[in-house]
């Protein structure tokens, strides 16, 4: 269960500052840079140089939080034996499967109206073009 510290609600997003158990966190970046890990090992607070908390996303129907910013801090917390990490969590209104389907297979663009067709010229001596407008 996420321990909510405070919440920011708006029309298009739902951000929650909460304490998340490390067992529910999953990093999304494959590499760890040793210099950055050493930097966070020297610190007691897990904020970045600007003072911001780590950031993650959680999909509807899932308890897993995917870390989008803060995987070095997550690694140091695990080394120190911490059980939880305080971070910002953005909750998406769709499931992970729906989000992946939308990212891989975007919807087809709407069909365009056909251009007006030309009518054949009348069988008179002069050439005339007649257009049919919808």
Q: Major sheet: size, sense and barrel closure? A: 6 strands, mixed
Secondary-structure element series? EEEHEEHEHEE
Q: Helix fraction?
A: 10-25%
Query: What is the count of distinct domains?
Result: 1
Salient structural properties:
two-stranded antiparallel sheet, alpha/beta, six-stranded mixed beta sheet, Conserved hypothetical protein from pyrococcus furiosus pfu- 392566-001, ParB domain
Describe this structure in words.
With 134 residues, this protein is an alpha/beta fold. It has a single domain (3-104), classed as Alpha-Beta Complex (Conserved hypothetical protein from pyrococcus furiosus pfu- 392566-001, ParB domain). 20% of the residues lie in helices and 29% in strands. It is built from three helices and eight strands; from the N terminus they run βββαββαβαββ. The chain has helices at residues 34-41, 71-80, 96-104; strands spanning 3-9, 14-21, 25-27, 55-58, 65-69, 84-91, 118-119, 130-131. The strands form two sheets. The protein has a six-stranded mixed beta sheet. Helix 1 packs across helix 2 (71-80). It is elongated.
């Amino acid at each position: 269960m996420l321990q909510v510290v405070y919440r920011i609600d708006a029309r298009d997003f739902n951000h929650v500052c909460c304490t998340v158990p490390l067992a529910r966190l999953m990093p999304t970046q494959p590499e760890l840079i040793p210099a950055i890990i050493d930097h966070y090992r020297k610190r007691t607070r897990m904020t970045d140089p600007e003072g911001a908390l780590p950031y993650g996303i959680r999909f509807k129907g899932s308890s897993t939080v995917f870390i989008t910013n803060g995987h070095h801090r997550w690694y140091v917390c695990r080394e120190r034996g911490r059980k939880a990490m305080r971070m910002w969590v953005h909750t998406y209104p769709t499931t992970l499967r729906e989000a992946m389907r939308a990212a891989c297979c975007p919807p087809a663009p709407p069909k365009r109206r056909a251009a007006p067709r030309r009518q054949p010229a009348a069988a008179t001596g002069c050439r005339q073009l007649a257009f049919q407008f919808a």
